[in-house]
Amino acid sequence: MREIEQRTLSELGLEGSLSGVYDGQWRAGRAGTVDVVNPATGEVLASVGLGDRADYDACVERACDAFRQWRITPPPARGELIRRLGNELRKHKKSLGMLVTLEAGKIVSEGQGEVQEMIDMCDFGVGLSRQLYGLTIASERPHHRLFEQWHPLGPVGIITSFNFPVAVWAWNSAVATVCGDPTLWKPSPRTPLTAIAVMRICEPILREFELPGLMTLCLAEGIEPGGWMADDVRLPLISATGSCRMGKALAPRVASRLGRSLLELGGNNAAIVTESADMELVVRAVVFAAVGTAGQRCTTLRRLFVHRSTRDALVERLVHVYRQLPIGDPWDEKTLVGPLIGEEAVGAMERALEQARAEGGEVVCGGERLDRKGYFVTPAIVVSDSDLPVSHVETFAPILYVRSYDDFDEAIRWNNDVPQGLSSAVFTERLKEAERFLSPAGSDCGIANVNIGTSGAEIGGAFGGEKETGGGREAGSDAWKAYMRRQTCTINYGSDLPLAQGIRFDI
Ligand code: UN1
User: Fold this and answer.
1) 241 within ligand 1 shell (Cβ under 6 A)
2) Per-residue pLDDT tens for 265-294?
3) What are the structural domains, with CATH classification, of the chain?
4) Residue nearest to ligand 1 atom 3, measured at CA
5) Can you tell me the distance from the alpha carbon of 107 to that of 119, in angstroms, rounded to the nearest whole number?
6) What is the pLDDT of residues 229-256, one digit of tens each?
7) Annotated catalytic sites, by residue?
């Protein structure tokens, strides 16, 4: 291991034997260990202890204990905890961001950006803690007040994925905490070190608030632990980020106990480039959205529909940029494309490109594996004149499928013609096209951008998508409502008992 990598681990206390289970105290983790691999070298960074069913139950129990106290803590006082967390994250931004680089292979700037996203979420949470407002509604009865209020829901199960190993936890936790809900985090087994580091940052704050079980962590491997959470009535809400396959397995189980799930699943995002688009801007936006995070964001741009008159020129420019992309060591400040997360991701990309060729697509650049340790590939562009079935499937790798269109409405139809519905974009200088894209007959996605790529959303908006993306909304706007229960209240301050709907029931 290089010195910088070693230092990153030791700055966050990640040396020696590590456990992925924290229920207020670090438990041994009794289900064996998982090796954490550096995707840039293939080297094992650490072995981390996994939780078994008893470890999991201990976490849930501690979370339930914490809930009894936390739900009656005034929301602004809850916000104070999140303010402290935000301050600590500011102090640890550099080292935690570097750990994201080490463990997830994100380039330095994106690793730092991910921690910034956590800090932004904390700021948002602090403000939210003085809001959480309900409505007062006009009552039809004299001397009555009708209003709604929002109460804490209970412990929330959070399942996160490797590609945003800490930000997505913060989307959920910063909001859940101010809403009065303890959290139980099941991180991806590929990125447990960042999760442990986050819990270490939280630990002294939780202790100070005398609520060690308010934020718990249970690292676990395989399908079953997700099932424990799905079936667990003690967790009224399961917020899960991951594949559509995972969501389809999880959601019916949560629903069968009438629990709530908040899903953020796959994306297969498209952008439409019209005749009038500003091509300088298009090139920059498309490259960031298609190759940023090595194509491993759920918001990654995967499909590009370009007006026939400009397609060849745009493809030529994109290929030119792609050929010069600095690919390699994510620690190098000049690198723009780091590694894929693992061997299977490289295999999946190779298979998708093979299928694209078989379906008549032309791979005009990229798709090669770099001859070095780690899981590096060159981002690929596939051009076709027809609809490639492979482009309807989300491959978590940097492949951009380009197709030309003649009619704008046809391009909107293609945008919507995939099972997923996360993010979308149009590049145009024409107001009418922009507005049509954003109209009810336009993009069917949860995110629709104009002259911006599909990725890189701010936390202030609600994040999520439709169809097989799962329908959940996380982070900003009123996403907090999913973490609370709504109570509708009516107060009679008169001496009569008038009934609604004019019903008479005189006794
Ligand atoms: C994800 O890939 O799961 O909008 C989340 C974005 C980021 C979040 C991506 N802020 O690209």
Assistant:
1) yes
2) 999 999 999 999 999 999 999 999 999 999
3) 2-265+470-487 (3.40.605.10), 269-450 (3.40.309.10)
4) 298
5) 19
6) 999 999 999 999 999 999 999 999 999 9
7) 264, 298
